[in-house]
Amino acid sequence: MKVSLYNQLVRAGATRRDVLKGAASMAAIAAASGAGLGALTRPASAASELRAQILQIPGVGKGQPTDADFQQVGELCLEATKANVKEGEFAGVQLTFMGLNNQNLHNVLFRGFLKPWETYTGAKINWIDLAQADYNPRLQQAIATNTIDFDILEMGAPFEGDVCGKGLTSEMPDWVRAQIDMDDLVAYLKPPVGTWDGKQYRVTVDGDAHNFNYRTDVFADADLAKAWKDGGGGGEWGVPKTWQQVQAVTKFLKGKQVNGQDVFGYLDAPKPWGGFGFYFLGSRASAYAKHPDDKAWLFDPDTMKPRINNPAWVRAIQDVIDALPSEPQDQINADPNQTCFSQFLGGTGSMLVWWGDAGSNVKTNDSSVVGDVTGFSILPGSDDVYNSKTGQWEKLASGPNHAPNCAYIGWGVYVMARVDSDEKKKKAAWSAAAHLGGKDLSLWCAAYPSGFQPYRNSHFNIPEWVAAGYDEAFISSYLKSEADSYNHPNAAIEPRIPGIFQYYSAAEDILANTFAGKMTAQEGADAIAAAWEKLTDQIGRENQIKLYKASLGM
Is residue 282 left, alpha or beta, with left meaning phi > 0 and alpha meaning psi from -120 to 50? Predict the structure, then answer.
């Protein structure tokens, strides 16, 4: 159930208990309100019963899930596999799976989910586990040397140009489309995402967008409110809505305490992270750089000339430089893992941009102490936005410019073309991928620490989350921040072009020196632009222009 529909029920006279009770209450409400809610009055299906069952494993607030939990969830979600595969059908098949082990998530969960699949099908999976910073180099090495030593790959859509575009992946069979219910994906994850030259290659297991996480206790603190007012802070003390306000609050909070503990403002992640750290500068820049009248924000779509050294991006780089002295000591050496899983979950910092994983982890990760004091919104906006076509800053009549960063377009599972010559192995690989991308299993992943966030329309059913143990106000805020990011009319969409992580990695290395004071923001941005120009020429400018425009829907 989407947030809007849930709110409609409440306005019609339903309580949360009514919604959860189901058919009888809903029928009465629908009849009384004339709201046309007949579709909601059907009795709970076996599928909904399964979803309710797995969401109680282990139950929100009952400790972080274990491998035994992963295996139990995998076993309960195996019925879709049994409809397409006979018991023991893949006996003797061995598959190699390459993916992340970041924060003991990703592959760690996949192992547990697939153990009952292995037992039922007879196949065996061998694992290649990679740290986040090692992922891009390892994948690029396999591509460059033509040594694809894996049958199944966990990969993000930005890499599709490098992998699918080179014919390295197996085309999805129709039976897999049906098993995973592709129609349930949120709109921005549907084709062309997951496709190349019109062919479907990806089983989506994640939907990435950066949202804004903040400490509700900090922004409701009366002493801080008084100090803010007495110090001449602009406006009322509260959650920042723009990056200009984020900067002001971060500087204000230096040296302040809440409940006897040091409190800091925004948490930047300046340390290189295998290309993935560039997204965090992107989230600072998007409101400055992504104009509502322009689909592009990274490159000029007609020339591939980088925009990274225009005034918008330079402002974002300067923001980081200016904020670091007010952030925790040695923040310059913090990567995104540290900012989220060590600092924010551990109670350090009051504002964090991260993927949606932060929202589930604050409630279900054993290291979290902020589960009851975290709120969410889309990324902060900006009082003005840079117009790359006119070369001018503009203030919009509609107010601050917002441009949620749909960073990485989510993880997916891809089957490699090297299995295509062996029908048994090919079916086994696609069956494993389909199991991991199953509709019910995906809900559990969204609700618990997994490395993945909501990415299906069916993930926005608030009563399911509440029944699992989530607070209604908390989960409503969280899911709204996700949905509003995915569906925002000015979302900053990432290009699926060859070499995109080569661009990002080159930028990270230069940014590290810039943040360390070895060059100015403009000098660093100019150096990145020069490096990007060389990459574009190496890859092929004309083809990059063509693919960049296609990725933006131009």
Answer: alpha
